[in-house]
Amino acid sequence: MTVSGTATASRTAPRPASRRAMRRREARIGLLFVLPVLLLFLAFRFGPAIAGGVLAFTDYTIGAETSWTGLDNLRRMVDDPLFWRALRTTLIYSVLAVPLSILAALGMALLVRRSFRGVKLFRSIFFLPVVTSLVLAGIVFTWIFSAGGPWSSLLGAVGLPEGSWLSDTTLVVPALVIVAVWTRFGFGMLILLARLQDIPRELEEAALTDGANAWHRFRHIVLPELKPALFFLAVIETTVSFQVFDTVYVMTGGGPAQSSYMLVFQLYDQAFRYFDFGYASAIGLALFVMTLVVALIQRLTLGRDR
Amino acid sequence: MTALSTPAALDADVGAGAAGDGGSSRHGRAYRALEPSRTGRTVRAVLLFLAALVTLFPFYAMVVLSFKPTGAVVMPEALLPWPLSTEAYEHVLGAESVLRWTLNTLVYSVVSVVAVLFLASLAGYAFARKRFPGKEVMFWSFIAMIMVPYHVTLVPSFIVISEAGGVNTYWGLILPTLANAQAVFLMRQFIKSLPDELFEAAMLDGCSEWRMYVSMVLPLIKPILATLGVFVFLWHWNDFLWPLIVGQSSDMRTLTTGLASLNAENAPLNVVLAGSVVAFVPIFMAYLVGQRYFTEGVTMTGVKG
Known about the structure:
Order of helices and strands of chain A: HHHHHHHHHHHHH
Low-confidence stretches of chain B: 1-9, 12-30
CATH topology of the largest domain in chain B: MetI-like fold
Shape of chain B: globular
Largest interface: A-B, 112 and 116 residues
InterPro entries (chain B): MetI-like, MetI-like_sf
Distance between the termini of chain B: 16 Å
Radius of gyration of chain B: 24 Å
Number of strands of chain B: 0
Membrane topology (chain B): Multi-pass membrane protein
Shape of chain A: globular
CATH architecture of the largest domain in chain A: Orthogonal Bundle
Mean pLDDT of chain A: 86
Family (chain B): Belongs to the binding-protein-dependent transport system permease family.
CATH superfamily of the largest domain in chain B: MetI-like
Mean pLDDT of chain B: 83
Strand content of chain A: under 5%
Number of strands of chain A: 0
Structural class of chain A: mainly alpha
Helix content of chain B: 55-70%
Oligomer: heterodimer
Number of domains of chain A: 2
Number of helices of chain B: 15
Largest sheet of chain B: none
Number of domains of chain B: 2
Largest sheet of chain A: none
CATH class of the largest domain in chain B: Mainly Alpha
Subcellular location (chain B): Cell membrane
Pfam family, one (chain B): BPD_transp_1
Radius of gyration of chain A: 26 Å
């Protein structure tokens, strides 16, 4: 590789006077400093990223002969009702979780926007779930959503049917969405809060003297200023939603009756329960394409805005 | 895409600055008028109070239930702070497994933080300040990897580690997580923004490269080391999927995978929650002390809360 070649090229002590020697010494040091990270990337990022694409076209399992299976895994994926189900559930989950967590983030950001006594405490409280492990959140929320748990009691108190949402095939995804909103809104709040700071006071004051009420000021001044940040959030939150795993693993295991079985959970299931690494890689490829599509939409929309 | 730098908005005074001295403002009446009215303030206070209640409730439930005797999970008695029992904690802290998981989590987090900071700052320094062949290609291919979801490389990374005999070892757990593109990116940006004169002066002094890195670069990048360090620590402390597949034997679990396994084995809720409190307290303490670093780290790197 070029790395070792350049590194040994100038072993002789560089004379300060010689520009070329100094250049070579600089290149050698630069490569030396980058080398450890480069090796790690080759082994665990670049290599696996390519391998992830290649594996999807094989029937790889650890310790067995591997052979090319061409498009078999992709064909199997297309014919697999469970894959379509996982995809659909992931999309439904995202369609609910992304707007709800952004809305909650926006509401909270507006509430803690101005300074008042105790505002920092509120901001700290709202950010706390973001630093909490999803496994812990999953464990606590499993109890919260259990039959006879607080959520069920709350529903009963307002006259709605009680019961465990986690064992209900239609309500299990909304339950997971609630956990997602709880864990994510603090992050969005912080991003939006930073943008709100940048809005010049004069803009809103001018609107105020022109007689614009709070809603108009929000609609015509604040919201347009927040638009790029909201878009950024939408992309991040969509990516995070597509990759939901920890809470599904802890709270539902994909059930009941596979009604919360989502893509990353299927990937995990195929790879580490059935040791079907080829098929798991095909699902990984599907996830990659989905992420790419979201990034492309972002690119196109932002490009149009400018 | 994910590298968005944001000031630590939690600490900043947004809007009215020191609310008490509104009269001294140049903007006079309009300044005040942007503040909510008396009713507005009341509504805001009520909404905030409710939102804080909802946000904090799961933490309250976690703590209170962990102090209940086994089986006391019936509403509404379960939520009352009495009777207290330390039964679950005696069980958890007496169990060798939980102590082992805590140790594993500490090793996984601390070693990774030190290694990521060291390797990323070396590489970031080289990318920012040195000329060498292939620099641009390497740097931009690192950045491109931020776009590739973690789960795409999960299976091949596992195969690499598994073939190399790294399953159920610390190095197998730690090594793949050290290829951190965001860390390299942030380091490079930060070091690039430092004044050129500093580096030129050190060069003229004939500083050796290693001395220059240790005695000049490291002290200068302290702020970003702290922010990134806290973020990497948090990420590893809370990480789940990778430890789940690499640390398979029960004595190689971390706190997250260990607690998930307890939960899956239908261990009593108070015991699982006592374990959860044990896992949460260090993060909570750190959050109380250095909240700024948490918010900066999480917003700078974008994803993964």
